């Protein structure tokens, strides 16, 4: 293993940090309910990764079992109980628990509990997941063909 290819060739560093205060409203949804906070969008990280804080209300459910061809997905539970599927079994993940799923790995998550839950989602390399999160709401009236095209465009392949 070695370090990745050099990205910055300057000599003195640069001012380029991106601070996001904890009280920043969510980018999608309602704080304290179902919400997604774009902590580090792909555009911010120059495509290196995407990091999102997901708030789920009680019994919020979640996506069916799926995989990604181009991105890995990692889950870090901040609070509550999130049911995680690691491709083999469902586990009740609690604060501090972590799951990494490489490209091609089957996975799913959901909040089946009677209490809210919160987690961090990390996608690597970065992908335009903001468009995925925002587009999900528009699928309610979509045709099967439109849904299939949307999920293919967003590297999400669901299995039965």
Could you characterize what this model shows?
- The chain has helices spanning 129-136, 144-153, and strands at 28-29, 35-40, 50-56, 66-67, 72-79, 82-85, 90-93, 98-101, 108-110, 117-124, 157-158.
- The protein has 2 helices and 11 strands, in the order E-E-E-E-E-E-E-E-E-E-H-H-E.
- The mean pLDDT is 94.
- The longest helix is centred in the last third of the chain and has 10 residues, at 144-153.
- With 160 residues, it is mainly beta.
- The strands form 3 sheets. Strands 1-2-3-10-5-8 form a 6-stranded antiparallel sheet, with helices on one face. The chain has a 3-stranded antiparallel sheet with strand order 7-6-9, with no helix packed on it.
- It has one domain (33-158): Sandwich (Jelly Rolls).
List the helices and strands and how they pair.
Layout: E1 28-29, E2 35-40, E3 50-56, E4 66-67, E5 72-79, E6 82-85, E7 90-93, E8 98-101, E9 108-110, E10 117-124, H1 129-136, H2 144-153, E11 157-158
Antiparallel strand pairs: 1-2, 2-3, 3-10, 4-11, 5-8, 5-10, 6-7, 6-9
What are its keywords?
single chain; 160 residues; mainly beta; Jelly Rolls; 6-stranded antiparallel β-sheet; 2 helices
Q: Going by CATH, what is the homologous superfamily?
A: Jelly Rolls
Biggest sheet details: 6 strands, antiparallel
Query: How many distinct domains?
Result: 1
Question: Structural class of the secondary structure composition?
Answer: mainly beta
Spatially, the strands of the biggest sheet line up as: 1-2-3-10-5-8
Low-confidence stretches at least 5 residues in length (pLDDT < 50)?
none
CATH class: Mainly Beta
Percent range of helical residues? 10-25%
Known CATH architecture: Sandwich
Tally of contiguous helical segments: 2
Distance between the termini: 37 Å
């Amino acid at each position: 293993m070695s370090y990745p290819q050099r990205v910055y060739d300057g000599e003195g560093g640069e001012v380029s940090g991106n601070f996001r205060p904890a009280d920043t409203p969510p980018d999608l949804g309602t704080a304290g309910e179902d919400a997604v906070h774009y902590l580090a969008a792909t555009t911010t990280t120059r495509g290196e990764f995407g990091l999102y804080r997901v708030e789920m209300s009680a019994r919020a459910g979640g996506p069916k079992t799926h995989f990604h061809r181009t991105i890995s997905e990692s889950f870090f539970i901040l609070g509550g109980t999130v049911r995680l599927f690691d491709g083999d079994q469902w586990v009740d993940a609690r604060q501090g628990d972590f799951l990494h799923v490489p490209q091609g790995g089957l996975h799913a998550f959901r909040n089946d509990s009677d209490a809210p839950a919160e987690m961090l989602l990390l996608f690597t390399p970065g992908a335009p997941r903001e468009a995925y999160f925002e587009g999900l709401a528009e699928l309610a009236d979509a045709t099967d063909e439109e849904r299939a095209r949307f999920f293919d465009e967003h590297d999400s392949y669901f299995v039965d």
